[in-house]
Amino acid sequence: QVTLKESGPVLVKPTETLTLTCTVSGFSLSNARMGVSWIRQPPGKALEWLAHIFSNDEKSYSTSLKSRLTISKDTSKSQVVLTMTNMDPVDTATYYCARIRIAVAGVYYFDYWGQGTLVTVSS
Amino acid sequence: SYVLTQPPSVSVAPGKTARITCGGNNIGSKSVHWYQQKPGQAPVLVIYYDSDRPSGIPERFSGSNSGNTATLTISRVEAGDEADYYCQVWDSSSDHPFGGGTKLTVL
């Protein structure tokens, strides 16, 4: 059974750094046909992709947020970590991690999602 | 940047057919995936590779993709289908893989 679970603070202050952890089970982060993405959703708004990481440690970031994001993984712990610096109230959102399925090179979809964690940015 | 355009809302009566579109330049040449998100829940994959259904997704959900429009079709709509639906395409020219979402209302 594949599961992903996000963990981290529910409240951060402006200018602080957010660190979120995605703990996965039911698959290995070393699987070459899979990866993990972070996706967020501000209240009442659409999904926004943030970053992803693959088994070979290939990483990619949203262009608009690239300077603030870092994604990493610890395969032995089955964890993917996202850090976002200089948090702002506009970053208030539910943050999801999702498994990426790669069936064909360059064609990715998200077949399993975590339950999400609401992060509020406020002083 | 590759842009995906969805109608903000679609309404349908129970038992009827709902069609939710996703527009994009030559989207028919790409693989489109669809997600259902009910209030307070995480998205769920309902269609991948244009028209494939994951295990557990009812046959009432189907997809098609041609030209500049991909379509998610929900037949015999039920009250439980009321949700937001998002299309998704992975394109190397864009880091916005999701459409803006469509709210499906069951009348």
Descriptive tags:
heterodimer; A: 123 residues; mainly beta; seven-stranded mixed sheet; four-stranded antiparallel sheet; 11 strands; globular; B: 107 residues; five-stranded mixed sheet; 8 strands; 0% helix
Textual characterization of the structure:
The complex is a heterodimer of chains A (123) and B (107). By secondary structure, chain A is mainly beta. Chain A is built from no helices and eleven strands. In chain A, a hairpin with a 4-residue loop joins strand 7 and strand 8. Chain A is globular, with a radius of gyration of 14 Å. The mean pLDDT of chain A is 96. Chain B is 0% helix and 39% strand. Chain B has strands at 9-12, 18-23, 33-37, 44-47, 61-66, 69-74, 83-88, 102-106. Chain B contains no helices and eight strands. Chain B is an all-beta fold and 107 residues long. In chain B, strand 3 and strand 4 form a beta hairpin. The chains are: A mainly beta (123), B mainly beta (107).
The H-and-E topology of chain B, N to C, reads as EEEEEEEE
Give the end-to-end Cα distance of chain A, rounded to a whole number of Å. 39 Å
Q: Please compute the radius of gyration of chain B using only Cα atoms.
A: 13 Å
Low-confidence stretches of chain B: none
Task: Tell me the total number of β-strands of chain B.
Answer: 8
The percentage of residues in β strands of chain A lies in over 45%
Give the oligomeric state of the chains in this entry, treating copies of one chain as homo and distinct chains as hetero.
heterodimer
Number of helical stretches of at least 4 residues of chain B: 0
Largest interface: A-B, 25 and 21 residues
Apparent shape of chain A: globular
Which structural category fits the helices and strands of chain A?
A: mainly beta
Helix content of chain A: under 10%
Anisotropy-based shape of chain B? globular
- Counting DSSP H or I runs of 4 or more residues, the number of helices of chain A is 0
